[in-house]
Sequence to fold (294 residues):
Amino acid sequence: MPELPEVEVVRRGLERWVAHRVVADAVVLHPRAVRRHTAGADDFTHRLKGHRVGVPRRRGKYLWLPLEDTDQSVLAHLGMSGQLLVQQHTAPDEKHLRIRIRFADTLTSVATEAVGTELRFVDQRTFGGLSLHANTPDGLPDVIAHIARDPLDPLFDDEAFHQALRRRRTTVKRALLDQSLISGVGNIYADEALWRSRVHYERPTANFTRPRTAVLLGHVRDVMNEALSVGGTSFDSLYVNVNGESGYFDRSLDAYGREGLPCRRCGTPIRRRPWMNRSSYFCPACQRAPRVSS
Fold:
């Protein structure tokens, strides 16, 4: 599933190609793509038509398109295989095209390069979708109001995160994936940040010091910014940006997906362990497991 860097790459593409365009019409080609819009496909398309899309926004892994003249937003759930693609009207339909949104463009209202393009939601596995939601006073779709700020948000509170980390009395990777504590961090970037921090994924958070929390947050931010600079992480063809291009950060991963390969720091083979229906990758020498209390 896309994590913060991948979703931010998509958001930036949408800002360039979709922001400030007026929706001419929308067509839902598969009902599962709007299943989170409880009023149904006809209501979804009717309520989009004629509205101007604002600047796309993101919190953690969540991406939405505000509608400028309303208090509502289109929330995008990318799921495991959802793609938001900008294509020419004349481009052939993708095999798994689920929603098409066309715009009423004039050369005075949109950049020349965007004229004649449409927004397509493509989803092979149909786990994702689009839905309309009312906004909170902060401009978030109400269904994600509980999601914490992400570490790249200028308003993210490092001290509040540290205090919550100690109170939660959990283990560090569970904390990093807890979207009510910190949003946007998924399995890949958690493993990478923990490797850089030399911290085992099962280390308890109750005894984290402020300096250790600061180091961890620093590495979380560094790895995400580095991933952003190369378009995110693509392990297959399912994650792409709005132009259908893959990211390249998988070539720079130090831990995730490197089972059996030598640690880039000490040479010890990287290990993989099952963890919460996922896998955790770590160096057993650099990231020593915490002692088990007897």
